[in-house]
Amino acid sequence: MKFLSHTPIIHISKPSADFYSVFSQAEILEIVQTLEVQREIPLKYSYKGRGAKIWDNFYLKYIIPTWYRKSNIEIDLLEANFEYINGNYQKCEKINIIDVGAGNSYPVKSYIDRLNKINKINKYIALDISEDLLKVSSKNIKKWFPLIDCANYRIDIENTCVPKNILENQHKKIANIFLHLGVTIANHQNRTQVFKNFRDSMNENDLLVFTNEIGSSSQWDGIARGGCKHHADQVYRWITNNIGIRREDCELVRKYDLATDSIVANMKFRQNYTINFSYLGIDKNIEISAGEEITIWRHHKFEITALIQEIEEAGLKLVHYSTNKYSSHLMMICEIENNS
Ligand SMILES: C[S@@+](CC[C@H](N)C(=O)[O-])C[C@H]1O[C@@H](n2cnc3c(N)ncnc32)[C@H](O)[C@@H]1O
């Protein structure tokens, strides 16, 4: 009797030149290592290159206020908390706005406008991991506020503090307001490190202002909405095309992930794959078996008490928070712990 040996079919994929063109060598190394160990392509990298257009389009289609969608979480919460974030709280004459993860800067337009009218703005600084979103932000800010002093720099807030040399005017009468809007804190792999990096970037007069969704990720009703639906869809398409996985060989799965206590969007493989990363001296094969999933999008909701505990562990102290009218989201304002 003859036995047929079954050698499993393994597809080989090679990321495209377009994929490599938007990342530095260090970023490719981080992508490869995170994929190998944590089975994740961090969402932060999906805002670069074509990803910038994907975010801007998503924002302009689904988030920007229009006649039929009047309410916008960030704009409304910045408005509602204006008294805390206009320099009065710190008794400062002027403020620098340091918008970390600025995106297209649309959420801060009305806030800057209001501050500008009372002559409170010293400088607007946009920071982002994505050079292409910094270009979108800069174009918008220059168009809306041609006379405001502005600058932009590329940083990864998960890996580094805001460099002191860009925080010029360290001056008693000028405070820095660090913004981290768009529920971006929910998307990071290492939120604690991000809070610590903010804390280490701040001086006694400075404030950190961020938004997040309130509640428990584990209670998710299974219906994908907003970013989980439309942004994750586009990111999935961009990644599959750029790392060379055939459409029919994978599917997008959204679910609650206990290990990260987050809602995740995963790319589930239907075939065995070897992804060959070969770029600037990096030569690495990552094996992914049929049935395995890799995370490409994640979102962590916070219960308020857990969030306060997390900021305190990072050396930050709550100044004030408020929720939106549906109590689905909050804006939290913090200062450094040893301030009083
Ligand atoms: C969800 S969008 C929010 C954009 C904008 N703040 C808003 O509210 O519309 C996240 C933004 O943060 C940037 N970003 C994500 N991770 C980052 C990181 N680790 N360091 C710096 N920027 C990051 C993205 O490129 C993107 O512009």
Which key phrases capture this entry?
seven-stranded mixed beta sheet; 13 strands; 30% helix; alpha/beta; 9 helices; L-histidine N(Alpha)-methyltransferase; 340 residues; globular; EgtD_Methyltrsf_superfamily; methyltransferase; three-stranded mixed beta sheet
Structural class: alpha/beta
Number of separate strands = 13
Number of H/I helices: 9
> What portion of residues belong to β-strands?
25-35%
Please mark out the parts with pLDDT under 50 across 5 or more consecutive residues, or reply none: none
In percent, how helical is the residue content?
25-40%
Q: Span from first to last CA?
A: 84 Å
Order of helices and strands: EHHHHEHEHEEHEHEEEEEHEE
Pfam family, one: Methyltransf_33
InterPro entries: EgtD_Methyltrsf_superfamily (IPR051128), MeTrfase_dom (IPR019257), MeTrfase_EgtD-like (IPR017804), SAM-dependent_MTases_sf (IPR029063)
Keywords: Methyltransferase, Transferase
Protein name: L-histidine N(Alpha)-methyltransferase
Short recap of the structure:
The protein has 340 residues and is α/β, with parallel strands linked by helices. It has helices spanning 17-21, 25-38, 50-63, 73-80, 109-117, 131-144, 191-201, 226-243, 304-313, and strands at 10-13, 94-100, 121-128, 150-154, 174-180, 207-213, 250-257, 262-269, 272-279, 282-288, 293-299, 316-323, 329-336.
